[in-house]
Design brief:
With about 350 residues, the chain is mainly α. It has 2 domains: about 220 residues, no CATH class; about 110 residues, no CATH class. Helix content is about 70%, strand content about 0%. It has a two-stranded antiparallel sheet with strand order 1-2. The chain is globular and about 50 Å long.
């Protein structure tokens, strides 16, 4: 509740201060909005969560590992704020992300072996694979933050689902540092979403998308390390965002387009131009709530069928976003975005 109130209050302050801070985003041909709108509001989530966590650190409630994760989260949020204000080069962003993600995976180590049926990755290969996968997760979450309410609502649903599974597996989890980090993030994200739900009065910006992706990453690595979630269950839980972002990237890369270049080729962007932001955010939320999360729960309960269930979560969604035009060439004469 404290994080929710903080998230809401700081978001409102950022809306008022955005012009002075240079955090007003003017619409352009790549935008999904039509009026200048404050951005960087996701910083309210990061500040709220870090503030709550620092209070626990001062009270001696955070062990060293959790405190280090908190520091890394602050770095990734700070990187996002800098990018919101100064538009950092892709190379600088990538280098900093590699450092943060590598440290995050190292702090979570040791992690369970990753085995696809009869093929098992070595420890070194697993480490490299996880760093690459985590880098993709942080960037795809940023790519998917392109319409009102989408990234914030997805973060709330994914984190709530993961925390629910954690609680069902370990009833005494309440009060543990990473649990508190996840709960505080859900609360702060809800406070932010009150101003970000369509029609948004403020956008999340890289500060928020980077931080939310990082917190989800820490929670998932913790659950995998504790044996509560398998890798396939994690894939299923985030299947909605993973499907849209990955199909879009693959199709764009196949045409030789730069992955980091701004565009409006995701399925959610195309759908929002036809139906508006709110219906698309709701449909994506329903897909996560009624499709991805139940299959993730089944993957936890039926570990022998984990990868089959992960595929069942991802493949139909990949087909759906492909049918919606994910990654197709942009039509420059597309209609103006609607709310």
């Amino acid at each position: 509740m404290i994080a929710l109130l903080l998230g809401s209050a700081i978001t409102r302050l950022l809306i008022a201060w955005a012009p002075r801070l240079g955090l007003v985003q003017a619409p352009n041909e790549r935008s999904s909005h039509i009026v200048p709108t404050p951005t960087g509001g996701g910083a309210a989530v990061a500040v709220s969560v870090v503030g709550c966590a620092l209070a626990l650190v001062l009270l001696g409630q955070f062990p060293l590992r959790a405190a280090l994760w908190l520091a890394l989260g602050s770095v990734i949020a700070g990187l996002g704020i800098a990018d919101d204000v100064w538009d950092l080069s892709p190379a600088i962003r990538l280098i900093m992300q590699i450092v943060v993600v590598s440290a995050t995976v190292a702090l979570a180590w040791p992690l369970p072996e990753l085995q696809f049926w009869f093929y098992q990755l070595s420890a070194a290969a697993l480490g490299v694979f996880l760093v690459v996968a985590c880098l993709w997760w942080i960037n795809l979450f940023n790519f998917m933050d392109g319409i009102d309410g989408l990234a914030g609502s997805q973060a709330i649903l994914i984190l709530a689902g993961a925390l629910g599974l954690w609680f069902s597996a370990e009833g005494g989890v309440i009060g543990q540092p990473v649990w508190l980090l996840g709960v505080a993030t859900v609360g702060a994200s809800t406070g932010f979403l009150l101003s970000n739900w369509p029609p948004a009065r403020i956008f999340m910006g890289d500060a928020g998308s980077n931080f939310l992706a990082f917190v989800i990453l820490v929670v998932m690595l913790t659950l995998v390390g504790r044996g509560i979630l398998g890798y396939g269950a994690v894939l299923a839980m985030a299947a909605v965002f993973i499907s849209d972002a990955t199909v879009t990237l693959v199709r764009r890369a196949a045409r030789g387009e730069r992955p980091w270049a701004a565009h409006r080729q995701h399925a959610y962007q195309r759908l929002s131009r036809r139906f508006g932001h709110r219906p698309v955010a709701i449909v994506y939320g329903v897909a996560t709530l009624l499709w991805a999360l139940p299959l993730a729960v089944l993957a936890v309960q039926l570990p022998d069928f984990e990868w089959i269930l992960a595929a069942a979560a991802v493949l139909p969604l990949a087909i759906a976003v492909l049918a919606a035009g994910a990654g197709a060439r942009e039509e420059m004469s597309a209609a103006r975005p609607t709310l």
